[in-house]
Write a structure and sequence with these properties.
mainly alpha; HTH_MarR-typ (chains A, B); Arc Repressor Mutant, subunit A; 6 helices; 169 residues; DNA-binding (chains A, B); homodimer; DNA-binding; globular
DNA sequence: GCAATGTGCTTCGGATTCGAAGCAACTGGA
DNA sequence: TCCAGTTGCTTCGAATCCGAAGCACATTGC
């Protein structure tokens, strides 16, 4: 029942602004901590964390890009940067010659371990401090639903790359 | 009671990821709509919207920077861009010679009005669609508290520009 | 096997961001 | 008034991001 009125009511506006502002403020703070603690950008941290989560410590580029929200080209850039620093390795997959498997290295894990405590502290102090346990549960639930919905709905360009023949000139 | 354990429990992690992902997805979608409908970046839209909200249609640069979350230099860049397009004017304040007053123009208001309906639609379809009214209220409350807390807590560098004399060398 | 299409990743150019440093105007105290 | 410190904004350089275009491998249909 999305009636789509031409404006938002005060509550909706408040939720929208609060979401944008809170995530911006949090992201800025976290970025600063990551930069100081391990010279990582936020994306780089997300990539390392995602890889560290994987049982094998590795993922395909495309799966990484989906997990994080960034563009393919941006991912390439950051993966190269991380590779230069020796925090990940990139090897062509054996199945698909064009697919690249990214794997976190020991040093990558070390850097990750180095920044993690500070990361957790920041989250606790900035995001969770003013919230009760029940608030946090509610937040996870509501935003989780919103995220799942947005992931399903065609997020980027409605039609990824279809170019059905272009019907001549 | 910030016990700051060395890791987060599943609920906290879920809330954190959901917040980051939901805001990222939403922001990307909105950015695309704004670009298509009025060739505006997200910051530019926020600036115009903030100015449009003001009774006088104008604000000082610093107040704008505080309202949005961006850096002063980034604000300067965007304000110049908007001025080139004739969507805002920038005039030195009469009180403070160094202060700049930014004012939205008629054309700025027109562009704002042009992108607004689509903006509202995106929000409705992506963010609010899967949420009940009570969800939205709760979200506004919780994230509002988090935002206020983060705004108070030294967000950027712990000490903005204090260089209290530097106790000479 | 070969051509047409699809998929995975990178390169390219341009836009946007930030922090540090710099300039100019204001403020308070001697 | 004059000086030191503060505040408002801009410039500068570097980093990061994206989308479009391009390249190479894979897959399908014939």
């Amino acid at each position: 029942m999305t009636s789509s009125p031409s404006s938002l009511d005060a509550t909706q506006l408040g939720a929208y602004f609060a979401l944008i502002e809170a995530s911006s403020l949090l992201k800025h703070a976290v970025e600063q901590q990551l930069r100081e603690a391990g010279d990582l950008s936020y994306v780089q941290f997300q990539l390392l964390a995602t890889l560290g989560d994987s049982p094998t410590g590795s993922r395909r580029m495309t799966d990484l890009a989906d997990g994080v929200v960034y563009s393919r080209s941006g991912l390439t850039y950051q993966a190269q940067t991380l590779e230069k620093r020796g925090l990940v390795t990139r090897t062509p997959s054996s199945d698909d010659e064009r697919s690249i498997t990214v794997t976190i290295t020991e040093e990558g894990r070390a850097v990750l371990a180095g920044v993690f405590p500070g990361h957790v502290t920041i989250l606790g102090d900035l995001l969770f401090a003013p919230l009760s346990r029940s608030d946090i549960e509610t937040l996870a639930d509501i935003l989780g639903r919103a995220r799942d919905h947005m992931r399903q709905t065609p997020p980027r360009s409605a039609e990824p790359r279809r170019r059905r023949k272009a019907a001549g000139s």
